[in-house]
Amino acid sequence: MNAGIFYKTEQDMNQAVMSPYASLRSLYNQLFIYAGEVRSDNTTFSWVPGNSKDMTSIDNFGDVLLSDNSFVLGLWNNSYHTILRSNIVLDKIDAVSFTDPKLKEQYKAEARFLRALTYFWLVRTFGDVPKVDQQLSVADAYKLGRASTQEIYDLIVADLKFAEANLPATYSAIDKGRVTVGGAKGLLAKVYMTMAGYPLKKGAPYYALAEAKALEVINMPQYALVSDYKTLFDVTKKNSTESLFEIQYKKGGTSTGSPWNNDFAPRFSNREVVLVGDKGGFNAPTPSISDAYEKGDPRKAISMSDGYVSVPGGKFINEKYVKKYYDVSFSNSDNDNNWIELRLADIYLLYAEALVRQGKQQDVALSYLNKIRTRARNSAGGSADILPDYKPFSSDAELLLAIEKERRVELAFENHRWFDLVRTERAKAVMTQEQKEQNGFNPSAWNDTMLLFPIPLQVIQSNPEKIKQNPGY
């Protein structure tokens, strides 16, 4: 369609707003999983096609993660494509007449939230990145270098504050899945937590901001933990009371289905794991995440399996796989699962951590940590004699490790683990041990440059005067 005759009506702008939402699927399908999970100690590859260094170098710190990595380039390009779609909305909307001015501001708020979310991924993955907050000509684009991490976070915070002020609390059923004020508040709490930690290290004032924003979400009456952990990932119960924001997928041959049930299944399994379609063998749980669950924790059986029984033959195949996103495909890799980007349990745990990092209210922090454990033991497959409530800890450091561990098992395979390790400066200690055990990595080879991905070579080659490589690459 000719852009010159589009963007004229409220209906046009509604379609335009849907565009960056749709663009998120290309990121969550695989690319963000590589950055958030495979890079961490949570998952690895049980199978790779041929000798794919593009995949293994993300997972194995002993391999060199090269700037010409196709997945790194894909993450960069698809992120900026999503930002472009948001910027188009923001650049075009003021010229369009709306019968309801609040609706115009809502559409702007949605676009700014989606831009902020995408930049949050970019800045945590690459560090300094170009700041593109409007449509640019080719000539103007070549004038852009990498904005500082601080400047990108300033944009993210400004976008989220605008979103928070202009988004509705809920939608009618037909618009279910659009971001709400709760989603903006929740992401802002997470952004503040990240800014408080590494690399900006803004410390106590930002932990206080995160605490306040998280508490605002917690006090919103429309949100509550679902009673059964399994319900969160039931494709018939999407967008639950626990969900703050999730990327929407719909199977049925319309290219909007989700691929993870197929992608995560062991490559050489049969119908024992998935009923329809191929199996990818990536994002396989590591031994350490398997061991991280306490005995009897029902979240493990809901989230992953240590293997499967072959049919025919009845032999147990010791090959771990993620089963959190189970569905029966309409066709190959065409499933109904949404991806939950933000949910209330995440906010509970961030709130608890923010309190402890300020050295206050350990009892309140402990109560929110135990709310998560209570829900887990009351879930399907649980019992009263597992996951006892944590008792008061002798030090804040011990409590912080308990929160870290609870975040790992509660939010496993949801793209949080790597960034938690980075912002808390725990990546070196955790990953050198993990890599030593799994890949024979020499801990002395660790370098903090591994905390960021390389800027894609293609990006640097297209603008070498302005775009410089991250240190260490």
TrEMBL record:
Its subcellular locations are: Cell outer membrane
Domain RagB/SusD as annotated: residue spans: 315-473
Fetch the CDD domains from UniProt: SusD
- InterPro entries to which the protein is assigned, alphabetical: SusD-like_N, SusD_RagB_dom, TPR-like_helical_dom_sf
Q: Where is the SusD-like N-terminal domain?
A: 12-193
Specify the domain of life of the species encoding this protein.
Bacteria
Keywords attached to this Swiss-Prot or TrEMBL record, sorted alphabetically, are: Cell outer membrane, Membrane, Signal
Q: Which family does it belong to?
A: Belongs to the SusD family.
Q: What is this protein called?
A: RagB/SusD family nutrient uptake outer membrane protein
Q: Look up and give the organism this protein is from.
A: Nibrella saemangeumensis
